[in-house]
UniProtKB/TrEMBL annotation:
Pfam families: Myb_DNA-binding
Ranges in coiled-coil conformation: none
Keyword set includes Transcription: yes
One GO MF term: transcription cis-regulatory region binding
Domain Myb-like: 9-61, 62-112
Protein name in UniProt: Uncharacterized protein
Lineage top rank: taxon: Eukaryota
Organism: Daucus carota subsp. sativus
Keywords, in A-Z order: DNA-binding, Nucleus, Repeat, Transcription, Transcription regulation
Keyword Repeat: yes
Amino acid sequence: MGRSPCCEKAHTNKGAWTKEEDQRLVNYIRLHGEGCWRSLPTSAGLLRCGKSCRLRWINYLRPDLKRGNFTEDEDELIIKLHSLLGNKWSLIAARLPGRTDNEIKNYWNTHIKRKLISRGLDPQNHRPFDSTAATPTASAIAITSLDFRKNTSNSTVPSKILPSQSLVPLQNNQLNSIYKFKTESLEEGNCSSSTTEETQEYFRKEQNKPVLDLELSIGLPMTRTDQKTESVWPELRTVKPPTQAAPRMCLCWQLGFQNKAGEFCSNCRSTTAFYSYC
DNA sequence: AAATCACTCAACCGCTATAAG
DNA sequence: ACTTATAGCGGTTGAGTGATT
């Protein structure tokens, strides 16, 4: 015995919403608030499933939605956040007030991917395309061929490609899921041998900008299990915080700008090599 | 003017984690 | 303990629209 079904799927509308449906949904939520999507369609007199109502409200009808084009600042923030979070659109949207995950996802696929490719960067990993290693990802190739096919002779994709930061698995087989980035020359800014002037200029500009720091840290007190695990996998020491730094559970999501000295703001000073605590 | 192409974005689909019965 | 629905997410689709041929 489980729950009863959320709606009569045979009697629900699909496709584009009408103005009347929108109005009904808005009126209902104004009166009763969000939530309980299961019962909402019946209560609001809508022939839609709750899932569809929720999506329509979140992505289109919510009054706090920001309309209009994305600004340059928003573009850059999305790029930064995507480089840190990947395709976690809801997390990215949480950092852009008034924007929805769906909107950002669409914008990414239609604009930003192209923008990164034009900078010579792989949109999947934000690293320069590597002509010697594998190749750009399939999606990047698809976009490149799709979007520049009308202008191949004048493509903005750099013809030469940067050596990339490579993703190196740690030695221990038991730690295959833990990776570290082997940072090559980009940090020192000597990525010059195989870049176009445009790409070099981009990195010069990027290095002069304040560093956006987005750090999600979840730490748990060291338990007996941890200690036992550590004895089996001593390499975990390299990725775990010092035991004394985690006397209690800590959850800290930090968004901020570092100054030139690499320090965080006074409210978010880093106390260890691994974590920052607010 | 008509046909075709390219792009955008709202909406749907399928999946997972969690809650409810 | 198990089954089933819900909420929420990311990926994909396709209708609508504007640009190009």
